[in-house]
Amino acid sequence: xxxxxxxxxxxxxxxxxxxxxxxxxxxxxxxxxxxxxxxxxxxxxxxxxxxxxxxxxxxxxxxxxxxxxxxxxxxxxxxxxxxxxxxxxxxxxxxxxxxxxxxxxxxxxxxxxxxxxxxxxxxxxxxxxxxxxxxxxxxxxxxxxxxxxxxxxxxxxxxxxxxxxxxxxxxxxxxxxxxxxxxxxxxxxxxxxxxxxxxxxxxxxxxxxxxxxxxxxxxxxxxxxxxxxxxxxxxxxxxxxxxxxxxxxxxxxxxxxxxxxxxxxxxxxxxxxxxxxxxxxxxxxxxxxxxxxxxxxxxxxxxxxxxxxxxxxxxxxxxxxxxxxxxxxxxxxxxxxxxxxxxxxxxxxxxxxxxxxxxxxxxxxxxxxxxxxxxxxxxxxxxxxxxxxxxxxxxxxxxxxxxxxxxxxxxxxxxxxxxxxxxxxxxxxxxxxxxxxxxxxxxxxxxxxxxxxxxxxxxxxxxxxxxxxxxxxxxxxxxxxxxxxxxxxxxxxxxxxxxxxxxxxxxxxxxxxxxxxxxxxxxxxxxxxxxxxxxxxxxxxxxxxxxxxxxxxxxxxxxxxxxxxxxxxxxxxxxxxxxxxxxxxxxxxxxxxxxxxxx
Length: 599
Fold this sequence. Notes:
Elements: H1 3-27, H2 38-44, E1 51-52, E2 55-63, H3 70-78, E3 95-100, H4 109-112, E4 117-120, E5 136-142, E6 152-157, H5 166-178, E7 181-186, H6 194-206, E8 209-215, H7 219-232, H8 247-252, E9 255-259, E10 274-275, H9 283-288, H10 292-345, E11 347-348, H11 350-364, H12 367-370, H13 380-394, E12 401-403, H14 404-423, H15 431-443, H16 451-467, H17 469-476, H18 479-485, E13 490-493, H19 505-508, H20 514-520, H21 524-535, H22 539-582, H23 586-597
Parallel strand pairs: 2-6, 2-7, 3-5, 4-5, 7-8, 8-9
Antiparallel strand pairs: 1-2, 3-6, 9-10, 11-13, 12-13
Helix pairs in contact: 1-10, 1-23, 2-10, 5-6, 10-14, 10-22, 10-23, 11-16, 11-17, 11-18, 13-21, 14-22, 15-22, 16-17, 16-22, 20-21
């Protein structure tokens, strides 16, 4: 695969990641802006243009402390007249780059140095202007030697990083991250300085190729310094690059040069910078005849490796967070449904049940019988007897009959208080917000008796009426049963505590109540109702109606509690986050990173 094909593919993947990753990052509740994540910015800062006429474009950056001779080497390579040596020159605060002049018309400077504000250098004084915007990068043009056949070399000079200007340190690191080749220039007195070692470590971590240059020293001294340096940093340079080498190994395998000339005496020549060891190419050859394609690819791999690791970790975190949100939503829904089910199991709409029986029985009576005002069937005697028995005892258990609106209002008030406490384990609850939502919830209409339940009861009673004609005739005449009970709005309160009628959710969670449960617990009114229904052979229908009521009413109350309480209090936020993460193309980001890893 050619370097052009690799770069085109790399750039396409990079631009897709630049579009997708910030969405995942934003949905992952990170506090720090993604623009401040160095591993991410390394990928974003990759240049849009790294080829000219199909040949690799490399950036070689000169690094080093004040007085090491960076500017002299810059002049040597470019032929430009940057102040150096004994000439007193002001501290520089801005980066400068020299670009081959033959490509002046077919190069986009901003694409080569993304994130920088590129300006043409009109005066050397611009480099020492402290008030210029920090992101400014000044460029000029130089003549590329004819020796450079397969390489397009941009030379960058950065501010001295051992100055007191912290901005200079940051600019030096930024330009290092951009450079494919780092020329690390140092003199004997400074090579072990803490700040010099710190920047050397950064260069070893990010550069595609490193050349270390000792100035103002002899070959023997340089050899001694080099051995001392590589030995001293061995333990602290153990982080691994993407190519598998430790930073220590990368440094030890770098090309080392020395210059025994006093760089401040006169202009340097190429021959003045000499290889320290055998096998190291001449300095000019290093810069202009190097394996540009491999250096460029090495740089892309090294930078993308750190970004890929960041993206993989972010995707794993986002996936975990998405599952966490989904589980929280499910647990909240389960809590709401459990409480809705308890409320449904704690009551039965006996008034509406009897009313439906009477309505359906009247529908089923033959016309001739409907004219009879007093049923005379023997069948009615048992019903009449049961009703009289119920009527004589109903006053004693009247508190077990409640208006369903009042009862639901009490139960729902208890429910939202309990749910609020349950929700705290998923997200912090703002008390002011809770109070406002609670007041709004109180103003909502209590859900009516489910229409589906009424239809279920009617179907059951119609079947019963066909099989028990005379009993249905009798029941059709007993509208006063419904009136005596209190009408269709009355429900049996199946869970009474302390005479107040309030539901103690914590006492019944996980338990089934309903009519059968209430009867088993000794509730009087449910027992009386069951006796009446047994007398007219509606016991099974009553049990089935109770079961259907619990299911239908629980669904209605669940929707009411979820929509009007849980959603505004907590679920809207959780569902929004879960939706953002679900639509964030996490898998696509992973696949794109897999492709980068394959280079």
